[in-house]
Amino acid sequence: MTPFSPDPLKWKLVWSDEFERPGLPDPAKWGYETGLVRNNELQYYTASRPENARVEGGRLIIEARKEEWEGSHYTSASLHTLGKASWRYGRLEVRAKLPAARGTWPAFWTLGENYPEVNWPRCGEIDILEHVAHHPGVIFSNIHYGDPSHHNAKGFLVVPDVTCAFHVYAVEWHADHLDFMVDGRIYFTCRKEDSRDGTWPFDHPHYLILNLAVGGVWGGEMGIDADSYPQRYEVDYVRVYEPAR
User: What is the residue range of 193's domain?
Assistant: First the structure.
């Protein structure tokens, strides 16, 4: 399958990682979350550990492993660009193949770069790709925001071969709306005019996050197939575009 490419008359590439250099992810582009971070997930996120995050064969491999680590029974990795790169508006995309084992929860998403100061969900969250393996082949996108209440909007698309083929998952983020798509097909749109209580936070810079969770409040709803680990989230590239004019 030929990877989808955005219209060069509409979009200009301004940042990317093509994962061409073997070894650990490029430290100039990526940092790490560490520990037990959120959502009652079971994995311990490690930093600079090739068993959990490495570049090989021109791809980023995020690997969830069943092993004892710092009191947890699983390890994995969560990479982010906080403090290194952030964007307001544009096209954010990943080309990836997803793990299949029950309990896996891969994602490609953003948080407002003011997250350390204002916390979630006030900072805003854009979930470009989420897949929970107990809903095989269903791609979810979400936005989360609000202060003091939490609001969210969710879309989904059935893509049956997500665990055996690469697809391009993207959001085109504009001042007044966000279009979510797979391989260029828009399946969900969030509009600023539909936001509640005037707390729309998608007008300031956000940073990227790539992670593979195990279990948790959503990923673990139907249990975990522990005998199927390790599991790999394979990323061909991450690209960010700004409007060409």
Answer: 11-243
- Cβ partners under 8 Å of residue 27, min gap 6: none
Q: Is there a contact between 212 and 231 (Cβ–Cβ < 8 Å)?
A: yes
Q: Which of 41, 130, 172, 234 is catalytic?
A: 130
Q: Rounded to whole angstroms, how far apart are CA atoms 22 and 57?
A: 7
In a domain, 5, yes or no: no
What is the model's pLDDT at position 1? 58
Three-state DSSP at 117 gives helix
d(CA 143, CA 123): 11
Which pTM was predicted?
0.95
112 contacts: CB under 8 Å, gap ≥ 6? 118, 122, 123, 124, 125, 201, 204, 205, 206
pLDDT digits (tens, 9 = 90+) for 185-198: 999 999 987 776 66
Looking at 41, 93, 113, 125, which residue is catalytic? 125
Q: Establish if 6 belongs to a structural domain.
A: no
Reply yes or no on whether 67 is catalytic: no
Give the number of domains in the chain: 1
Q: How confident is the model at residue 7 (pLDDT cuts 50, 70, 90)?
A: confident
Instruction: Please tell me the distance from the alpha carbon of residue 170 to that of residue 197, in angstroms, as a whole number.
Output: 27
Active site residue 130: yes
Say which CATH number the domain at 102 has: 2.60.120.200
